[in-house]
Amino acid sequence: MRGIWTVARKELSHILRDKVSGLILLALPALFFISIGFAISIDIQRIDLAIINTAGPRANEVVNHLYNTEKVGKIVMLDSPSEVEKSFIRDGVSAALVISEGIGGYNAPLKFDLFIDCSFSANVVAIKNHINSAIKSSIIGPGSDPPFTIRYLYNADLNRRMATIPGVIMIILIVVSTMIFSISINKEKVHGTSRLLSLTPLGPIRIVIGKTIPYFLISLIHISYLIFLGQSIFGLGINGSFLLYFLFCALFSFNSMMLGLLVGSYCKTYEAALIICWFFIFVPNVFLSGFVMPVNNMPEAMQTISRLVNGYHFIEGYRGIAYKGTGLSENLPFILYLSIQSLVFLILALLGFSRRYSKS
Amino acid sequence: MDRILTISSLSKNFGSLVAVRDFSLILEKGEVIGIFGANGAGKTTLIRMIIGLTKPTSGEFTIATGCRIGYMSQSFSLVGTLTVMENFEFYGALYNLPQQEFIHQRDRFINHFKMEEYLNVRTDRLPAGRKQLLAFSISRLHSPTLLLLDEPTSGLDLLNRKRLWEAVRDAANEGIAILVSTHYLDEAFNCDNIVMMERGAIKAYGNPINLAAKAGGDLINLFLEEGR
Amino acid sequence: MMKRFHSIFKHEVLSFVRAPLMYILMILCPIVVVGFIPRTLGNINKVRCAIVDMDRSSSSREITQIISSAKDCLPPAWCSSVEEAMGLMEHNSIAMIIVIPEGYERDLELGSPQKMTFLVDGARVLEADLSASQMISLLSGDDVSKGIISHHRLYNDEDHAEEFYLVSLISMSLMLVAIFLIGLSVIGEKKNNTLSQIIVTGVDMRLYLGVKVLFYSLVVIIELFLCLAVGYIVYDMTIASSLGQLILVTYIFTFPLLFIGVFIASIARNDVQAIHMMIFLIIFLVMLSSMIAPLANMSGISHYFCRINPAYWLTKGIRAVIIYGFPLRTMLPEFVAGILLSVIFFFSSIRLLKRIS
Q1: Same domain (yes/no): A116, A187
Q2: Which runs of consecutive H residues, i.e. helices, occur in chain B?
Q3: Containing H/E element for A228?
């Protein structure tokens, strides 16, 4: 125990004495959480619209309705349809609406041609539906009663942050627990201190435990204040068991650390560790975990690959525990997967350590 | 004799840590002054101030007009991924040497230090002794009038240390003023004068033979004395 | 000066060519980031739903038929009760429950129809919102809009979901290569103390740094070609505007990123610190750059951060050329800002590099 504690203390003092790295490690994730939590949203916040009204005063009511529609931001009135594409360039609009007289005389219904910037597919449906609804409600009039009611379970106000916060937490834990930890592990090899450690009676397992403890404690600190920030800034509480939530996040953090340990123990240089962490861990976790794109909408083959990524299990478990209030049994598959994966990473990493420490 | 370097009450503080304290020295043409001291005595900081990599906190130093400075750092400062020949070419171009002069200097050092078989070897794969000789050659490539060598013999075996000091003496004989920092007291007798530094200040200065006589026959006694 | 220029450039080429990690980085970027990741993007909005038909009438069957045969819906699950359907939702098998109440057809015939209830999994916000919108469009009858509202798709006729992300990922690859490669190069020179020796030679640091940045800007252009090749081979990606414009816009907007890489390597006291800073900076730049989602999807103050983010300018520029075919003069403000930022970081880096201690 003394040996483990000595290694842990050395690691902790190293983190704290390098003030810049310490600041990056402890404070930056909070800043990241707040800024990215506000910034990133997969659904469209505002629809900037260009309108060309060739139908004259008849269309004024529709145009006014659009001005007052919630999601519609800036409206640019254009003189002719030929300016539509220019408006996409010049004004940065997401869609352009051409209102014209319908065929069949003055009393024929107005015709609407909606030109949508489809470069970001996820926004297309939202733009279509919002503009469609605005037009229809201005034509049908107020008080129109659709034949259904919609209730959003677990998220009555449809708080958009629910979509991004699990992903942001996942990114923070991966960066701290995987990337930074792998560089810390790799540092021993680069600086040659691993040779010195190999001469001590500690052995690779105790060295690994000693090095893991400080980073694990730091990640627990992050988890704690992210809960607080999530609640106070974004209004996202924990609907399920707080203890289960905390332990689940800690499990993911541990899983990420074991992955970082694996990378750090086999890479020879920082650069190699950085490249592997970035391309094979960070980028796949961002895109395949369900943060950017719902996993269920991916092609079948990609869904299988996605389910191998640890971030996927974290986000699914997070949503279940934090938002749906589900318990251990519903989230057992994710917990088991992360646990088994952690064990596999740990065993592979220890093999690498044993080989390195016995050779040196 | 010509004064190449004049240092007057030079000091350097890093926060509350005084790295160099009130250091004064005159270095003349063809003179070799060795700076001795334990780790943390301020030797490297002094040399870095003279080169211009660190700004002094107070004091001043003057270098003779038209003086060219050569420098060899503790870590050799070679480009590891380049071969020996490529390092010569790289630094030769950075020093802006005319082609003929560069070829003459390069070939001179290659022959002198017998580097022919290593010309196409990457410097990160060279043994330490070879790296040191290469670094010394590069510091002399542009025919400097002042040479600053920061622990040039650190980590070398006896034979290579002897070789390097022979090269240092040759350089001095050509009229180059040389300031060398080292921990090895036995190298003191290769110098014309030595400076003993302790905690950033000069503890002793003078001819090594005279100093050794004053210290009871062994220069180590100068370190072991309390105060200056 | 030309001799020094040539020597410094040659030194960069040789150092680059002899470092295998550089190749790995340059090859991994297009293959993993551009080649593989967009494959993960499928069709958006396949609604996963369960139907609880408590009425079991011909009217309710009509509705369930519409849902079952809709191309935007996956085959629905049939549940006998809401509780059963909720169980599926808790296990993430469905995102929506459509409940047709008992007596639906009877009340419809009486002229006061009961409402169906859509219970949507609000924990999956994006899917929830889109699923609800899809279902509303599907079941709302659309009599008013049929023939009155026409939709025209611009810039992505065939709804290639990966088009947006392909450009984003190309931009991300270029940004990673720019910041990492030059940052690691400068860190290496600081660590080996080569920089001290270079400063002593009397070479102008502006020249030295300028040549270094120039070399790595060319490396970024090579990387651009690799990414375009992968994009073309795997996704049939084409450029709406011209290749020349794409090279120009990439070239110009790469400089601020390269100088940022040098700046970080300059301010860091050691290599580990530099790597930590690069990691966080790159993540911030990526997230606030419209690579993950367009500017229109960002809220409030993040818009302003986005607009001063060089990664955003790079992404916007590449998107303008590849997807939209916009003329480059529309990006004049960004060009000016890019030059200004490059100059600031350039001179700051020189001052910092000279102050090595």
Answers
A1: no
A2: 43-51, 84-94, 99-112, 128-139, 158-173, 208-214, 220-224
A3: helix A203-234
Does the beta carbon of B118 lie under 8 angstroms from any beta carbon of chain C?
no
Task: Tell me which chains share at least 3 CB pairs under 8 Å with chain B.
Answer: C
Using the 3D structure, point to which of A140, A168, A196 is the last residue of a domain. A140
Could you count the other beta carbons within 10 Å of the beta carbon of residue B217? 9
The C-alpha atoms of residue B84 and residue B220 are separated, in whole angstroms, by: 38
Q: Is the pLDDT of residue A105 over 70?
A: no
With a cut of 90, say whether residue A94 has pLDDT above it.
no
DSSP state of B56: -
E strand residue ranges, A61-160: 72-78, 95-100, 111-117, 148-153
| Interface subset of B 55-114, CB within 8 angstroms of C | 55, 69-71, 73-82, 86, 89-96
Pick the closest to residue C90 from A309, A163, A323, A307 (CA basis).
A323
Same-domain status, A112 and A56: yes
Q: What is the predicted pLDDT for the residue at C296?
A: 73
Contact list in C for residue A233 (CB cut-off 8 A) is none
Residue numbers of A between 311 and 340 with CB closer than 8 Å to C = 316, 319-320, 323-324, 326, 330
What is the amino acid identity at position B222? L
Would the pLDDT of B32 be above 90? yes
- Last residue in a domain, options A82, A107, A140: A140
Q: What is the rounded (10 degree) CA torsion for C58, C60, C66, C68? A: -100
Q: Is B touching C (3+ C-beta pairs, cut-off 8 A)?
A: yes
Question: What is the rounded CA–CA span in Å between residue A132 and residue C38?
Answer: 30
C-alpha C116/C-alpha C114 separation (Å) is 7
Q: Which two tokens stand for residue B16?
A: 């509350």
Task: Let me know: does C132 contact C153? Beta carbons within 8 Å.
Answer: no
In chain C the domains, ranked by start, together with CATH numbers, are 2-40+159-354 (no CATH), 49-138 (3.40.1710.10)
What domain range includes position A91?
47-140
> Are A10 and A94 contained in the same domain?
no
Identify whether residues A182 and A208 lie together within a single domain.
yes
ipTM: 0.81
Tokens 């907007």: give the residue. C253
Contacting residues of A for C40, CB less than 8 Å apart: 287-288, 293, 298-299, 302, 305-306
DSSP assignment letter at C45: -
Q: Tell me C29's DSSP state.
A: I
Stretch C17-29: mean pLDDT: 81
The whole-angstrom separation of Cα A245 and Cα B67 is 70
How many independent structural domains does chain A possess?
2
Looking at the structure, do residues A36 and A51 belong to the same domain, yes or no? no
A10 located within any domain: yes
Exposed, middle or buried, C326 (CB in 10 Å: 0-12/13-18/19+)? Answer: buried
Contact between residue C292 and residue A292 where contact means Cβ atoms under 8 Å apart: yes
Q: Do A235 and A96 share a structural domain?
A: no
More confident residue, A357 or C297: C297
Same domain, A235 and A125: no
Do A39 and C288 lie within an 8 Å CB cutoff? yes
Domain-located, residue A146 = no
Over residues A18-73, the pLDDT tens digits come to 777 777 777 778 887 877 777 776 667 778 899 999 888 888 888 888 888 877 88
Q: How confident is the model at residue B228 (pLDDT cuts 50, 70, 90)?
A: very low
Q: How are strands ordered across the β-sheet holding B69-72? A: B69-72, B146-150, B177-182, B32-37, B193-198, B201-206
Q: Is the pLDDT confidence value at B193 over 90?
A: yes
Average confidence (pLDDT) over A9-15? 77
Residues A72 and A200 in one domain: no
The CATH T-level fold of domain B1-67+146-157+181-223 is Rossmann fold (3.40.50)
The band of A295, judged by pLDDT with boundaries at 50, 70 and 90, is confident
